Predict the structure.
Amino acid sequence: MTDREPQDRPAAGQRRRRPGRPRAAPKRQNGLSTREEILIAASNLFGEQGYQATSTRQIADSVGIKQATLYYHFADKRAILTSLLSSTVTPALDCARWLEAQDINPEVRLCALVRYDLDTLLRDRLNLHVLYHLPGLVSDDFEPTHSAQATLRDTYRRFGRAALEALHPPDRVDTLAHDLDLVFALVEAAVSQRQWGGEESRARYAGSVVRGTLRLLGVEEALIPGIIASAADTLSGYPDAPRAKGP
C-alpha cells in the first residue's frame, strides 16, 4: 500500500466518469449547428480585428463553447478560414452538378445557376466579402478557393456554350462565346454588393445580372421572362436553394 491514495480515485459507490469530448455551453435556440456558429463568430472576429489578431480561444468564447469543442470541428484557425473561403464556391458547384442531371433547356440551366449563385453570395450570413480584404493573408490561404473558382468558371463556360449552341447557328456561336466570361465575372462581383445598399439594391443587382446573362446569350427579349420563370421553377426542386425574391 502506498503512502497516499490517487486523488482521482472515485469514492465508494461512485462510478468513474469516462473522459469524453468537452461539452459545449447550452445550445442557443437559433437553429444553427455548432459548426455554423463557429464559422459566423470567426468571420465576425476576423472582420473586426483581423485574422492574425484573432485566436481560437476568442472564437470559442464568442460562441460559448470550450476551445476543445472548437478543435473537434476544426483542426486549427486556418481550417476555419479555408472553410469560410470555400463556402463562397462549393454551394454553386453542388448546385451545378444537380442542374446537369435535370432535363431542362441549356439556357434555363445557366440561368438557374446564375440565380442560385447570386442568391448564395448576396444573402450569405457569414459576411464573406470581408475575408477577401483581410490583411496578413498570403496567397496559399486562397489556393483551395482559387482552384474551386476555376472549376466553377469552367462550368459557367460549359453551360454558356451549350446554351449558345442550342440557340444559334454554329457560325454565330464562336462570336458570342468570346464574352461568356462576363457572366462569371458579374456573379463574382456580387460579393462586393454586400458592402453597400440593402436588400432591395442587392435584389436589383441580381435581377440585372440574370437578365443581362440571357441578353448576352442573344435570347429574344420577349422570351426572357419565361426562361427566368422556368429557372425559378427548376430551383424550387433543389433542396438547398435559398428562398429568394425573384429578379
Remarks:
- The longest helix spans residues 139-167.
